[in-house]
TrEMBL record:
Pfam families for the chain: Alpha-amylase
Single biological process term from Gene Ontology: trehalose biosynthetic process
Segments of this protein annotated with the region Disordered: 48-67
Ranges where the Glycosyl hydrolase family 13 catalytic domain occurs: 14-653
GO molecular function: (1,4)-alpha-D-glucan 1-alpha-D-glucosylmutase activity
Protein name (Swiss-Prot/TrEMBL): Maltooligosyl trehalose synthase
Organism: Arthrobacter globiformis (strain ATCC 8010 / DSM 20124 / JCM 1332 / NBRC 12137 / NCIMB 8907 / NRRL B-2979 / 168)
Amino acid sequence: MKTPVSTYRLQIRQGFTLFDAAETVPYLHSLGVDWVYLSPVLTAEQGSDHGYDVTDPSAVDPERGGPEGLAAVSKAARAAGMGVLIDIVPNHVGVATPAQNPWWWSLLKDGRKSRYAEAFDVDWDLAGGRIRLPILGSDDDLDQLEIKDGELRYYDHRFPLADGSYTEGDSPRDVHARQHYELMGWRRADNELNYRRFFAVNTLAGVRVEIPAVFDEAHEEVVRWFREGLADGLRIDHPDGLADPEGYLKRLREATGGAYLLIEKILEPGEQLPASFECEGTTGYDALADVDRVLVDPRGQEPLDRLDASLRGGEPADYEDMIRGTKRRITDGILHSEILRLARLVPGDAGFPADATADAIAEIIAAFPVYRTYLPEGAEVLKEACELAARRRPELDQAIQALQPLLLDTDLEVARRFQQTSGMVMAKGVEDTAFFRYNRLGTLTEVGADPTEFSVEPDEFHARMARRQAELPLSMTTLSTHDTKRSEDTRARISVISEVAGEWERALNRLRELAPLPDGPLSALLWQAIAGAWPASRERLQYYALKAAREAGNSTNWTDPDPAFEEKLAAAVDAAFDNRAVRAEVESLVELLDPHGASNSLAAKLVQLTMPGVPDVYQGTEFWDRSLTDPDNRRPFSFDDRRAALEQLDAGDLPPSFTDERTKLLVTSRALRLRRNRPQLFTGYRPVNATGPAAGHLLAFDRGTAAAPGALTLATRLPYGLEQSGGWRDTAVDLVIAMKDELTGAGFGPGTVKIADIFRTFPVALLVPQTEGKS
């Protein structure tokens, strides 16, 4: 199996096609990247800027460069000695525009007789053999239907007509009644939908790749990439939505000839990938959480908890209770259709009314500590969730006891489908709701993280890295993705708040007085985001604020927005630009956070690029990137600027200050080049301890062994506290051999070396044995 040393993620879209990607390959190679990592490239909804709404899996998207574009990327990568990793989406397809999706169009036209009927996960019996499409503004809008060009039309929406279902003069309503689909009001989707989706997105329909014929047709083009040598590995989107992730990965491994596979899997604290999964690891959110937390000051927890409680009227946030509530909000709201479908699958002799069965299923899912089980693996998790659900709701105890053996029996459809559903509820209830409500420190509410874990001490970090080296050395590590709530540099700046909790509280109080917002926790989230991303455009911050508020769902929401609250929210954001006092407060806060945030950014980047695993660099983040949630993190950027800056660095023109964004490029390029060119320096993992008064501010590890020292990473942690306590002073490390800093070229050791000397230029260093050849 060919495996990557590192990857660089490119977002392929109409504005940056595969041909553009091919042209960037020389720069990426110069940067030190080993594999090019492409976002989904199969044909997607026209105009999609992410590609996760695939409409035709049989071809590379013409808008993204088509098969010629993919061939161009592969050819450029091969010429540079690089590999190609491609993101694929097996769980669902895009159905927003039925005419663009031949599978969906066939299903709507022919219903159960369609050759693609088995490809989609439809509960035909619920709607009398029809597929319910929540398209209409309301059911009264059936009067707006018309027949045009042999199709049923609803404004710009087009639908096929079943053969023989229309004759001249028939009313559109009558014709609609004869179709294999039923157009209905969009609000009915919560309770009456009868096809599986991606989470609660009606325009993404689930696909049953567990069926061999469906797998084969859905992956024919993907398999071609490997047969023709165009790709070397795959990133698998949302495997938790599949009926049989283990079987899928085994079949995919066989179909691709044993290729490198990564899965987009969220691991909760203590959770491990099933040993039976044929993949090299995850896409790195677990690593992201560890890196973030080792740079958070544990002393900030108590004052930030106290502040958070004051913003909630004096009561501290109970995270466990919060996520139970947000999950039930999802099971009883936007995913209630899925819960009701599970209830319909429970055998009638279970002896409980349908509403009690649905309530009990929802309560069990709300008690789940992980995204899903992979039975028989995870059976104990399910049992414990049932026990917790019964304790929370004693009146449901009998129903839960009756359900437990059914949910453990993988021969039953209810058990298989339950596993597909629990992850949806976790994602929507936790990541997309609770993470916008639990706001004491924004760094902690990131995809794949447990926000109740406030910080990680270096010793624990080292223990986790040693396990990663031993168990998942080929798993990806990351700091930013297309899905992160905040980019790495935004989080790095926000993390400084853990060191300056008092100053943050005073700034927040002044901002709330100057720009009042009747939602205390949301105000903390908003001003942290603004401080983390500043300077940012008004448009960007307005979009983020509205999305965050609606996701949180406390003061407004997506389906029934509160105009009065949203006006106050918009006014608060505007105040950051239009009110001198507010702007001055924001800029003062940013001035306090920024240099220490820059130090954190460099530390996080160097640690992520040199720790065990396969490091990924998200596009553009070799410069400062202070993005917020999507689509803000997919904004255009300039490769030309980065290419020119890299040439300057290579010519010896080093940044004058570590706050210069070229420093991040320096760290990124030197670490990536070292990993690619001198892999012998990254064969092990050993913690390195400092001595002296500021030893706790150093995070250091050696990627070699006791017998053969390797690359030595040295990074500053808690930089504000370091500065306040008098700096490094006599803090030192012992170097057993002479070493050279890849960032500055300075030499050190052997013997005891002061950290202040190593960090004379930058707050990080990457030391290599001087006896080794050049990098």
